[in-house]
Amino acid sequence: MSDLMDLLSHDYYEASARDRILGVLDAGSFREFLGPENRTISPHLAQFGLTGAFDDGMVIGEGLLGGKRVYIAAQEGRFMGGAFGEVHGAKLVGLLRARRTTTPRRASPPSSSCSTPAGPPSGGERRRARHRRDAARDRRGAPRRRSGPRPRRRPVRRVRRGGIVTAFCSRIIVSEHGRIGVSGPEVIETNKGVEEFDSKDKGLVWRVTGGRTRAMMGGADRFVRDRIAEFRAARSRRSPAAAPSTSRPCGPSRPGSRRASPPTGPAATPEIWRKAGVASPRPSQP
Amino acid sequence: MEQFEVRTSSARRAAGTCRQAVVGVNTSGNIEVLVERVLPETESVVAVTTAVTGYRDLWQAVIEDFFDRAATGGLRFDINDGGAKPDVVSLRLRQGVRRMEIDA
Q1: What is the ipTM of this complex?
Q2: Amino acid A120: pLDDT
Q3: Do A159 and A103 touch, CB atoms closer than 8 A?
Q4: Hey, how many other C-beta atoms are within 10 angstroms of the C-beta on B28?
Q5: Cys staple from A196: which of A55, A89, A192, B13, with CB 3.0 to 4.6 Å?
Q6: pLDDT of B68-94, one tens digit each?
Q7: Is there a contact between A180 and A155 (Cβ–Cβ < 8 Å)?
Q8: Which residues of B touch A35 (CB under 8 A)?
Q9: Contact at 8 Å (CB) between A26 and B26?
Q10: Cis ω for the linkage preceding A255 (within 30 of 0)
């Protein structure tokens, strides 16, 4: 719900994409681009007799994270199974391009979580900002490249094809409920057979693609408890670094990290966990 | 796919000053509701888009019951339906009214 305390104690896994953003950002600082009131619905779904979503399952905008201005996106994993539609993809690409060509505005009036957000910077503003920046770079001979921190993109759990987007992230924060994989278990089973990967064996699925295992293998940077507040603390730059909920003895985070060489066979994951000092697969979280 | 509206012109004014809210997700057995404060104070509309055809009477009954129970004056509700049952529809509509009661 819109109450901040409610949101922070809320399960990240259970929350909608918009609620995740509202909870992760500083209270009242979110300004949505192309919000649901614009009704930017996929033009293709109706041809298949399917109803759309007012935001096509993608929430984008800007806000403050620990006082720092960021662009932010969240994918609604439950709409169309988290699939990428045309509008959905265009919104994410547009946000990344906007970050490359503009600086988020300093003075943005705080908006309540339920108020009508203003629109994104206009095309003219973006062009002028890009022109100024490129001109400055050209003058000092610097390459035209993206500067500053990258826009953040966190993995949205239960997104069966969302692993592709996650793979482009420079930092990944995941909780026990999350999974990271380029294909979902059902897709692997369909294509390679049940002997390869039994999607009904949920223990197997989470042992292989689950957040805990991925974090231990260096496939994610942080493993946190499944609370919006913990995701916020793990990313917020001004708050002290939150201790991960479990140890990450398999070495430094990706990319370029030396990953633990995985043993193979049916007992592989428990063995990895044992080496990592995790005695029991049960979560030992407060 | 079926689209229709159910309206009332004798609604009580909805509390709060919030301009807009979204509740629910369009997924199997669920609905997405976009609520906007865009109508005169005694009017209210629920606009339904559903992939499941042939249940218009049932929608009508559920929405008229909702108009009786909740103060919805001034609010427009747009629904994207993923095949929700009537109890889920009632719940989401009431949640939408609750969110609009927050002062913007």
Answers
A1: 0.90
A2: 44
A3: no
A4: 10
A5: A192
A6: 999 999 999 999 999 999 999 999 999
A7: yes
A8: 20
A9: no
A10: yes
pLDDT at site A56? 94
B81 touches chain A (CB under 8 A): yes
Q: Cβ of A64: how many Cβ atoms within 10 Å?
A: 19
Q: Is the overall model pTM greater than 0.90, yes or no? A: no
Compute how many other C-beta atoms are within 10 angstroms of the C-beta atom of residue A228: 24
- Judged by CB atoms closer than 8 Å, whether chains meet at A78 and B104 is answered as no
Instruction: Compute, in degrees rounded to 10, the torsion defined by CA atoms A117, A119, A125, A129.
Output: 60
- How close, in Å, is residue B11 to chain A by CA atoms? 22
Joined tokens for residue A166: 């996650």
The minimum CA-CA distance between B10 and chain A, rounded to whole Å, is 25
Q: Tell me which chain B residues have a C-beta less than 8 angstroms from the C-beta of A39.
A: 34, 78
C-alpha span between A185 and A208 (Å, rounded): 10
The parts of chain A modelled with pLDDT lower than 70 are 1-5, 103-163, 236-267, 279-286
CB-count burial class (<10 Å; 0-12, 13-18, 19+) for A133? middle
Token pair 């369009």 in the structure block, residue = B26
pLDDT digits 0-9 by tens, A33-85: 999 999 999 989 988 889 999 999 999 999 999 999 999 999 998 898 777 78
Which positions ≥6 away from A269 have C-beta within 8 Å? A207, A208, A213
**Cα–Cα distance measured from residue A161 to residue A159, given in angstroms and rounded to the nearest whole number:** 6
CB of A37 within 8 A of CB of A116?
yes
